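Memo to structure team: turn this sequence into structure tokens by end of day. - J.P.
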Amino acid sequence: MRRLAVGVVVAAPFLLGAAAGDTAVGSHPAFRFTDPEIVESSGLAVSAGLVVTSNDSGDSGRVFAVDPATGATVGVTSWADDPVDVEALAPTGDGQVWVADTGDNRHERDSVQLLRVPVGRGDRVASPQAFELVYPDGPRDAEALVSHPVTGRLYVITKGVFGGTVYAAPARLSADRPNLLEEVGDAPGIVTDATFLPGGGGVVMRTYSRAHLASFPSWQGVSSWDLPPQDQGEGVAVSGRDLLVSTEGARSRVLAVPLPPEAGATDLRSPAWTALRWLATARGLPL
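Reply from structure team:
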């Protein structure tokens, strides 16, 4: 999505962290996309050691699997139906990614769509399973989708100028009827992508210029910091203890940004939390 010509105002729970945030230290280039077909990298996800990305609105239905060691595309998954406006990707942990066709600049779509798409090395044509999502309070523009690493539950984060909203998808999605989203938290303004921390105890939401860390499941702001300058930063994913951040543009660079110490502290939980996560995973319960 094209950048809005407005100042970014952060939602109230994140004001303190934004004021105290520091510039990212130790960031460095991770790789450069070499595929000339990747011209507007918007969504970003890590799956089985590969970095998966998609182009912004206007592209056909496809995602690119990229080897981060070289920046070369090693697999393309395509499907027949062209999306309206793909804006985000989220990993599923089983050789697939969620593709979020959730862009709605004019706030006019009655529903948006998620697709579950296989990814990996080698080109393939898929017939992905599609799920329709409906907001409880009317159309919204959203550029961020996250999948909890323990329960797999999905959360859509909207891109509001003065602050966004976090919506939870049903714990079990239905493919044969619309899935009603539930409001569960607040987000900063102008969120262009987001990612869960590996343990599921925190979420990093990025804007064009900053990263905001929120705890989970409260969605309360913990801290924020400046990201390295990018032309139009729209992607973020976790790889080890780094954030990978991408930007639109042909042959654009993906940068690695070390997570701050508070990210590790946020992602650590008590034994009771660990037991709860295990129980939720074993029984397929929402969290």
